[in-house]
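Look over this today:
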Amino acid sequence: MKICVIGLGYVGLPTAAMFASNGHYVVGVDVCCRILDALGRGETFICEPGLGKVVRWAVSEGRLIAKNEPEPADAYIICVPTPISPDLSADLSYIERAVRSILPCVRKGNMVILESTSPPGTTRDLVCGLLRGSGLIPGDDFFVAYCPERVLPGRILSELVNNSRVIGGINKESAIRVRNLYSCFVRGEMYITDSATAEMCKLVENTYRDVNIALAAELAMVCEKLGINAWEVIRYANKHPRVNLHQPGPGVGGHCIAVDPWFIVQKQPETARMIKLARMINDAMPKYVLKRIKALMKGISGVRRVCVLGVTYKPDVDDIRESPVIRLVSMLRAEGGYSVITVDRHADYEGSKERDLYEAVKGCHLLLLAVNHREFERVDFVRIRERMAYPCVLDTRNYWRAEEVEAAGLVYHLLGWGKQTYEEGHDGGIPVPAVRGLGGPEER
């Protein structure tokens, strides 16, 4: 078949590459000249294991070509962004433009597939409504379905093949046709349902994780007040066969977990109360970490220098979309009196990719571990201590062992464990002893 994939981002390009490497001819469509130029040379802008090799082969064999507008094909797969609007609703303008762009091309017997994460009803109402402008009837003259991915950055190609899929057709025939198309590379189970159910499945999968992380974040804050190590609580609670608590951190990022729950809230704002609250808790974590940093730096005069390790939204990827660390950095700078330097070889954020950790910590008063990249697991704490102006470490990921950090002469603090300075609001400002972390978990 000839397949037209519209949107060549983190989902669209791997999807196009998989179809091209499994016998189909693929036209990859995007409005970004940088993406099109790279693809024309057989290159990718996404750092994803194995993707570059597949793309180079597909382009060299003429199986994958880059275009700036759609052309007639047998199937159209829409993989454009659905960002969050300032009012926390889904911005569906990219989907609308993508559908309008294929209207002159759609013919009888074609398939139109939406992969973009969308509020329930988008495929049925918006997409099909626009497609009627072709003069054909969706479901009768051609087939329409919603077929979202379930992939993890760093393992996208493997998970595109092996993960199960939920395929939501506007009718049963549409779902069956799309399932047959994806069967050329999907080895996981493919389940057929209606489009609105499939859209809700995609949203609730990420919402489940968001709510679970919010529980862990709230537990961390509660445990700090009680002088209990939240990480120990989570580790031992997860020994229960029916408990699977997630882990706290400086916030939730990425284009899925940090965004998708709002699409449910958008549809039912009065009912989705727990989902909304979880989003608010996770969105507030950068501010909470800022509060911890301010308490730790309270006794330092002049400009307080902070070295932040990691700016991506999760470890060992290059994706900074909705990164809570970048929000935290912005908050620190807005406070005034703080100088912030970032280190992250995965992402080029204000020069973070080229910086050496040991050079970056020179003269700093706080070393903040924000993202647990593998390269940060084993660092020379003695060398770090020699270069810092003040020996303070805040670990937001429970990644380092307190004993090792403090043996080097640094003072270790762990998000989710104990107080740091004074009981806020306590009558008389009675000091509370600092309680530090006990180190990383026995099981990582």
Q: What stands out?
A: The chain is about 35% helix and 15% strand. The first helix runs from residue 12 to 20.
